[in-house]
Amino acid sequence: MRFNSVRSSDYSQSARAVSKASDQIFDAAISGKPDFTKISKEAIKGRSLERRTATEAEGRVAQAGINQTPQLTYEQLLQQYGRPNLIPENLLALVEQPEVTGIPDGGITTAFDPDSFLAGFGMA
What we know:
It is a single chain. This protein is mainly α. The protein has three domains: 1-33; 34-67; 70-98, no CATH class. 57% of the residues lie in helices and 0% in strands. It has five helices and no strands. It has helices at 11-31, 36-67, 74-81, 89-92, 114-119. The N and C termini lie far apart (123 Å).
């Protein structure tokens, strides 16, 4: 059998030509492909730079916010949040808090009278 493309009549010559042609096709395909590893590394660098810049910007904004915070009062925070335990600690640090009154040093000096307690509810 004669193959016009390889100008030979034997199968081994044609197989070699086909193999060579497929190698050339493969080399052409590989040489034109993008370097995905390099692209990935650059993307990682870009994301890292973006995160670092965002963190720095957040810090500058927070610092500017602290420097520009209007004078808050404890009463304003209490009015907004309702109860003292609901006010965030970072806001509590910005205001002067009132003195907390608790049990006096001598303890509770009056005894509990259940009758007067119930009388307060109209149950005695």
